[in-house]
């Protein structure tokens, strides 16, 4: 009885006094789509929302945020945050979160967010809730388990709630037609011990749409047999469709494409309007990253391939004959 009352009191306190700090990422001077989706999730929690942005272009990012969604922006305009190193960002996040007595922290379930969330949870000794796909209320969330094959409803009794948001499950916040919110400049009070150092980064450059936000994706798997086949078959098809390129983990491990194009449980989670899977068997780990796509087209010579279980349109055939013909007709 005492425990039940305590849980109820904690939940009511969160709802009554709640305030949310959202971490927003910038890329190429713009807010990432995943961050805009996480702001939608934050707004569904029902609290006032403040945002933290960090890096040399933080002020520019802050000016893009809509005042009707965000009440305040904390700006840390420092080039040391440009590469989103979790060892540097986490002390900044925890400083703002604790100094301002926020009850909720929200971040995209991106590579950066997945680095920050557990570190922040360790600093303030709270249990994080990762990759939520729905918000029930300020203390109750839905998240996928078992590689997305089941959904789990989780209710927390923690006084401070830390969540990461699966961006494909929420519509991005619209940026048009709203003034920018007020800004407060923040600096890191005490620089952390130098346990990590940025050396360099090698970014994949492409004239194709970004995989994480593309409305059309052409993805290839082990069935393409080689890097040369992957490029010669999928690139022309993707160009005709204006689509991004994706791949299964098997294709990445075999060296067909860069690992930044991996779709699946250990890669990117995408939900485009159209997803074309070429030579993909449909392992459960891959399905976890793309089965929310609006229309799934599968092309595979094995009629029993698991990919057909989630496909809206399935074509059983030799990909080395079917794909060139499809590209030509397009």
From TrEMBL:
Pfam families assigned: ETF, ETF_alpha
Quaternary organization: Heterodimer of an alpha and a beta subunit.
Swiss-Prot/TrEMBL keywords: Electron transport, FAD, Flavoprotein, Mitochondrion, Transport
Gene Ontology biological-process annotations: fatty acid beta-oxidation using acyl-CoA dehydrogenase
Residues where FAD binds: 222, 248-249, 262-266, 279-286, 300, 318-319
Location relative to the cell: Mitochondrion matrix
Name of this protein: Probable electron transfer flavoprotein subunit alpha
Swiss-Prot/TrEMBL cofactor(s): FAD
Start and end residues of each Electron transfer flavoprotein alpha/beta-subunit N-terminal domain: 20-202
Cofactor note: Binds 1 FAD per dimer.
A GO term for molecular function: flavin adenine dinucleotide binding
Function summary: The electron transfer flavoprotein serves as a specific electron acceptor for several dehydrogenases, including five acyl-CoA dehydrogenases, glutaryl-CoA and sarcosine dehydrogenase. It transfers the electrons to the main mitochondrial respiratory chain via ETF-ubiquinone oxidoreductase (ETF dehydrogenase).
Gene Ontology cellular component terms for the protein in this record: mitochondrial matrix
Organism: Komagataella pastoris (Yeast)
Protein family per UniProt: Belongs to the ETF alpha-subunit/FixB family.
């Amino acid at each position: 009885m005492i425990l039940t009352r305590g849980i109820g009191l904690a939940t009511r306190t969160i709802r009554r006094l709640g305030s949310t700090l959202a971490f927003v990422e910038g890329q190429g001077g713009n807010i990432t789509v995943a961050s805009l989706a996480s702001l939608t999730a934050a707004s569904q929690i029902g609290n006032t929302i403040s945002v933290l942005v960090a890096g040399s272009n933080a002020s520019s990012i802050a000016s893009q945020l809509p005042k009707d969604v965000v009440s305040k922006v904390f700006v840390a305009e420092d080039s040391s945050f440009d590469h989103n190193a979790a060892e540097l960002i986490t002390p900044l996040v925890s400083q703002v979160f604790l100094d301002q007595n926020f009850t909720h922290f929200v971040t995209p379930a991106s590579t950066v967010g997945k680095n920050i969330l557990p570190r922040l949870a360790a600093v303030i000794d709270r249990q994080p809730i990762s990759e939520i796909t729905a918000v029930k209320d300020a203390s109750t969330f839905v998240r996928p388990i078992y590689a997305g094959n089941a959904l789990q409803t989780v209710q927390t009794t923690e006084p401070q709630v830390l969540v990461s948001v699966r961006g494909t499950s929420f519509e991005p916040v619209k940026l048009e037609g709203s003034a920018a919110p007020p800004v407060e400049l923040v600096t890191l009070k005490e620089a952390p011990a130098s346990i990590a150092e940025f050396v360099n980064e090698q970014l994949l450059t492409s004239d194709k749409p970004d995989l994480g936000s593309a409305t059309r994706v052409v993805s290839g798997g082990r069935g393409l047999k080689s890097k040369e086949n992957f490029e010669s078959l999928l690139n022309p098809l993707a160009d005709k469709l204006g689509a991004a390129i994706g791949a299964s983990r098997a294709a990445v491990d075999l060296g067909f494409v860069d690992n930044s194009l991996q779709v699946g449980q250990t890669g990117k989670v995408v939900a485009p309007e159209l997803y074309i899977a070429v030579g993909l068997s449909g392992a459960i780990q891959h399905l976890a990253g793309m089965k929310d796509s609006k229309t799934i087209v599968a092309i595979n010579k094995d009629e029993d391939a698991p990919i057909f279980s989630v496909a809206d349109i399935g074509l059983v055939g030799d990909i080395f004959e079917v794909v060139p013909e499809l590209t030509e007709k397009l």
